Here is the input.
Amino acid sequence: MVGDRVSVGRAIVLAAGRGSRLGGLTSDRPKCLVPVLGRPLLEWQMDALRGAGVTDVGVVRGYMGEMLERPHVRLFDNPRWAATNMVRSLQCAAEWLRQAPCLVSYADLVYFTPTVVSLARAAADIALTFDRNWQSQWEERFGDPLIDAETFAVDDAGRVTDIGRRPSSLAEVNGQYMGLLKFTPAGWASVEQLLDAMDPAAADRLDMTSLLRLLIESGVVVTGVGIADPWFEVDSATDLQVCETALLRLDPTLRAPRATRAPWSTDTVTNPSPFDIERSRAYWRHAPSGAGKHDTSVLASAADGDLLATWNAAFRSRFGGYPEEMTFLRTLAPTIAGQRVLSIGSGLGLHEVYYRSKGAAITCADIVPTNLEVIRRVASLTGAGEIETILLDDPAKFPTSTFDVVFIYGSLMAMPTPDQRTMLAKAARVLAPGGRIVLMLYTWEFARRTCGWESKDEFDPLMFARASDPTVGDEACPWSDWHDDDKLLALAEPGFAVTRRQLWNDDVYVWYELRRTSSSKPEPFFTEEQHYGGRVVQALDASEFAADAATLTVASGRHAFVTGEAPFAYAAVSAEHRLPDGSGANALDVQLTLDSGGVSIGLLDCQRGAFAATAVVVVPGRARLRLLPRELPRDYRVIVSNHQASGRPGASRFTVHSAALVAADVVEPPGSTAGGRRA
Here is the structure.
């Protein structure tokens, strides 16, 4: 391929948006880091670009942009990513576009080097790639290709004459624009001239195909480059399934576990053993929150104000994004006030600093020194109180004093089985009489959904690690495991029993409590009443939900919906409501029964045309959900959509019971003056 390299040395990847149609796949990462066969989308693009001779890559970031920090990538920020469209994101990289020819790529694509070479060689100031053989992929993705296709036409000279409108027939679609472009400085000057003449608000809303159509209408030449190699757009869970299936047809070996790679690089990083503590330490310095991951080696050197602002935002996003975890935090804190708590693998200390502020005596043990430094500083800055820390760089440094609670929130599943057994044995040795071990773990259901396994015999911890956790820095997640009662008790010392257990986040996570006791029936950590407390501000009756892409049957007071086959289509839509002034509402509660298939529940901001919060249900039975958006929209609808867990077409059957806006008790970061309710 070296002989096919071309002189365009720069490329810009537009990665500012969230990708809301991917649902929960982007709840903890930018869209460009969603894994395809275990590798982030961005890594597929980087391989294709590097193979064509691109040496400099810029990424325009927005949503969870801190996860895209890389030493060898130029970052451009779009601070208004949530309020603007793709053209404004591209403008954030105008510095490069004015200097030299640049390739521009959407961040949700998989393509290969020959396609990049064809585009780079185009003798045009503005060029784009298109696929004449697009229809079969669109049929796989949507059933009816006209659901999502846009008009496209080129003349005999290769000039694009039409793009981006809604077609009325397939005759209007002579190819499909990919989302891969090239601009020379002269071509970009034409874009800037057009944008300068536009109303700023209209420019904020401008998408790329509309921009291209306006350029064509103004007389600017846009050249189309037909491609023959495969490519894929990953805009939904269905698209992901279509893409992975097609890639495996092209190369069945892609399913095998890959060597650990430095992301967006052609270099292979060798891993001399199945599990390396130093690589694990390098990875877990990127501590998770609800707003992605935070590199504590950077946070540890931040000014006090910046550190506290970042930590408070991480705290609010974590517990606002996971309402059940907020209730876990709120209800567990009083039970450990005044007790000695050892936390193993504390990360940012989101739980631990809160428990300290509520009176628990906390000791944090972690393998990453900067994690512990951040926790100590935040505890001091918030006034929570002093937290003791222990760096686990030597087994001899494990605590020898006794504790009432050993708290292992997620770290047990990040180590191989022998190390899990050793960790639980150490926890048992320091446990005071009557003490307990509290854990948070992944379930088999999470592994099954993430990797598509049908049998537990297929489980591969390295593949699950790559698929379940986004690559950060120059490291890939080194290990990830799942647990159930039997697997956990087989790891624990004899005499321990499960005394509390609670599945959460639609059964992909589970909380456990272990005690030395005779076998007993596990209790939940909190009740439904504890989770769904609060004052109802505005109630929505089931009768006001109308059928959209579904049929509605009303019998004996039940409002039952049966969706069509199209995944992600709106099925049940409430009337539009306005949030009462001064209501104090901060949560949406929804009750429904899922009979088959799956559904996504969304709180739609009618003014922005975007969802303020979403949740997914794929487990049949009665479901009650609480959504905690960062900000409740002024005008809103509640929408229930068809959501197939596999991403393939299929119908769902469900019954809506009720929905309500609620003023609920919420936790705030220690030292915060925001109070117990959030409007």
Summary: The CA atoms of residues 579 and 634 lie 5 Å apart. Confidence is low (pLDDT under 50) at residues 1-6, 256-273, 674-679. The two ends are 57 Å apart (CA to CA). The longest strand covers residues 431-442.
